[in-house]
Design goal:
single chain, 9 helices
Length: 221
């Protein structure tokens, strides 16, 4: 992190950080001393605009996995002009990240490696991702383009739209995942967010004649 100008370290349910970690930190000791320890992923992801998860599994099939992975270089190119806070999530070397966390993420990064032994040491994996971000000229800036709050509202309205148009129930979950992937790839601006919200709001009102989505309507006797 110190080598590539990244300073904000958050540790989720870590082992004890003691003397050995301090010695290994060398000139990056300030990063370690200023790190935060939290007890849940949700707490770690507060106040971020985008979430990038990492995985040792190359998710090439859209039907089998909730996110399609990209290389660190492709990810760095995608976000290099992004004006927002991006959380980079690295899981344990033995278990990786939970699938629910991957579903919530906007990006999934996989480092190409020998298929017979594709899981990298976490420090090596982190260095590769940090390097690609560094060489593209990515710098941390204060928000604001569309962040988590706006995106969740967008997803909520999309879900409501599926309800009011009586979209087939068996297709809903996959369609919701597809829409989240689409939004993550496009990284919409605030203006684009408001435009989409206007379209969804109008479509919902027209489809339901101003009523709530079917699943929330009261039954009439």
């Amino acid at each position: 992190m110190k080598n590539y100008g990244i300073e904000d370290l958050v540790l989720v349910r870590p082992c004890a950080v003691g003397e050995e970690a301090t010695k290994r930190a060398m000139h990056g000791i300030d990063v370690l001393k200023n790190s935060r320890t939290v007890f849940s992923e949700d707490e770690a992801l507060k106040d971020v605009d985008f979430i990038a998860a990492t995985s040792g599994i190359d998710t090439t099939s859209e039907k089998k996995f909730p996110r399609i992975s990209m290389t660190p270089r492709a990810f760095a190119e995608k976000v290099k002009n992004t004006d927002g806070r991006i959380a980079l999530l690295f899981g344990r070397e033995d278990f990786g990240l939970d699938n629910e966390i991957i579903k919530k993420s906007d990006f999934l990064i996989t480092i190409p490696a020998n298929p017979k032994y594709s899981i990298l040491n976490i420090s090596h994996a982190a260095s590769i991702v940090f390097y690609e971000l560094f060489v593209t000229g990515f710098v941390k800036t204060e928000p604001r383009i569309t962040g988590n709050v706006e995106k969740e509202k967008l997803y909520e309205f999309f879900d409501m739209l599926l309800d009011v148009i009586d979209y087939p129930e068996y297709k809903k979950e996959k369609t919701k995942v597809m829409f989240r992937r689409l939004m993550a790839r496009s990284v919409p601006s605030i203006w684009e967010f408001h435009t989409l919200m206007g379209v969804f709001d109008g479509a919902i009102k027209k489809s339901s004649s101003g009523a709530l989505p079917k699943k929330k309507r009261e039954k009439k006797v």
